[in-house]
Design a protein that fits this description.
By secondary structure, this protein is mainly alpha-helical. It has 17 helices and no strands.
Length: 466
């Protein structure tokens, strides 16, 4: 593992000269330069904190809307007489839609602004969620309408994380990106907990329709508040003209993209994110079955809640730790690698401990440690893409997430095959560990934090001149 060094070769603060009032891209009194010859549009720290809280709630509501269908699937299957295969078709259609808009959402966000894409998509998928019971009751073929609705939900929600990556790369300074991404990322765990508790209660008291109504309308309300108070009522209009005239930051040609994808550091983040997403989806899909098969008398709420309660503070801690280390002058690339080492290396130790005979409390502890440490990737590979290519971070993150989603689906299916073929859960946990170590070694070997989305020969190098 790379040793963390202060002021390493990748260290480059936003201003290498501390004198104020220098015009952009000019030499200061002592010959100091701006880091990049671009106009500084970063949020101030108070503004960044407000956006962090807003985006946290937005991601929480995203998962509330996403998990509403799985929670209500049993009741809806009884209502509309769906078989297990039909129920699986409805639930699985979301992920196929989710894969198709990742790159597109990031591309549009890079050109017009991630906040606009987030706003429009949230209003759309929130409305779709609230409208789901109407489609189910008034369509002659509920199975078709629900499959189509879930597919559209996947399309609309697929732009969320690429838009976040684009917005963060454009508006947040390098030393604060880890905290924002880890905090916003914890919204997924918070949303899963909220909809799991409150949604189950609403399901029992008011019927499955109420879960969709409440989560959908709250999402639309969030989008309205974001438009009203953060965007100051500016219309989130995305036109063909705005896509074509988006400024120099996002104008990367096909040749530049090919050069970008040939960079070892870019390939490393794609491979590492693919491995991280695959193992996370596999754990998310199979851990409940593992506990039911291994500890049939255990209470479900224990292993369905405790790991997520651990994941939330763990994600926040990783963001604070990474930002603190960078602000203290430690090499950015080494900090990213350290976070990923905890996420994929240390977590694999606890995953392997599940292979042997263990008691239920210890199994919950091992799983909680695994899920908690996995969240460190929010401050590792997930942020590293913004270090490498801030001008196209959204589109590049979309490529990463698309690869991760497809590989995750395949690994979930392959894990099921291993369980049936061997009858042992140890093979699945060994597979997860192997994939994690493959991604970790790739990241440790090739990851960097220097910017690679520009031609270094055409841009003044950002060294300190005295």
């Amino acid at each position: 593992m790379a040793v963390i060094q202060k002021y390493g070769k990748n260290y480059s603060p936003d201003l290498v000269c501390h004198k104020d009032n220098h015009p952009p891209d000019k030499i200061g009194d002592n010959g100091c330069h701006k880091k990049w010859p671009e106009q500084n549009t970063n949020w101030s720290r108070p503004v960044a904190r407000v956006w962090t809280v807003v985006l946290l709630f937005g991601t929480c509501l995203l998962y509330c809307a996403r998990v509403a269908m799985p929670i209500c699937a049993v009741s809806m299957a009884e209502k509309f007489s769906w078989s297990k295969r039909e129920t699986g078709m409805v639930l699985g259609s979301f992920f196929w839609g989710y894969c198709f808009t990742q790159v597109f959402g990031g591309y549009v966000s890079d050109r017009v602004g991630g906040e606009k894409v987030l706003l429009l998509s949230a209003a759309a998928w929130g409305s779709m969620t609230a409208f789901t019971p109407v489609l189910a009751h008034f369509c002659s073929q509920p199975i078709l309408s629900m499959t189509l609705a879930r597919f559209l939900m996947g399309l609309l929600q697929g732009v969320h994380y690429p838009s976040l990556a684009s917005l963060c790369s454009q508006k947040v300074v390098e030393s604060e990106r880890g905290f924002l991404m880890s905090t916003v990322g914890s919204g997924s765990y918070l949303g899963t907990l909220v909809i799991g508790g409150a949604g189950s209660l609403m399901l029992d008291l008011y019927g499955w329709e109420s879960v969709f109504y409440v989560s959908g309308l709250l999402s639309v309300l969030w989008a309205y508040c974001m438009w009203k108070y953060l965007l100051k009522g500016e219309g989130p209009i995305i036109t063909l003209e705005s896509l074509g005239n988006s400024g120099p930051q996002s104008k990367l040609t096909k040749r530049h993209w090919l050069r970008l994808l040939k960079q070892p550091a870019v390939c490393a983040v794609i491979v590492t994110h693919l491995c991280t997403a695959s193992t996370f989806f596999t754990l998310l899909s199979w851990l409940p079955t593992f506990f039911k098969d291994t500890f049939p008398e255990a209470k479900g709420w224990v292993f369905n809640v405790i790991p997520w309660l651990v994941a939330i503070p763990s994600s926040l801690f990783s963001g604070c730790l990474s930002d603190h280390l960078i602000s203290q002058g430690y090499d950015t690339a080494s900090v990213r690698k350290l976070m990923q080492f905890f996420s994929m290396g240390v977590s694999s130790v606890f995953t392997l401990l599940l292979c042997g005979s263990t008691t239920f409390p210890w199994a919950v502890a091992f799983v909680s440690a695994t899920m908690g440490l996995t969240t460190f990737s929010h401050s590792g590979v997930s942020v590293n893409v913004q270090d490498l290519a801030p001008s196209c971070a959204g589109a590049l993150f979309g490529v990463m997430n698309t690869c991760g989603a497809f590989s995750g689906v395949l690994m979930v299916y392959f894990s099921g095959y291993l369980i049936e073929a061997t009858g042992s859960w140890a093979t699945v946990f060994a597979l997860i560990t192997t994939v994690n170590l493959l991604g970790l070694c790739t990241f440790l070997a090739f990851a960097e934090a220097r910017r690679v989305d520009i031609d270094s020969g055409k841009v003044r190098h950002h060294n300190i001149h005295i």
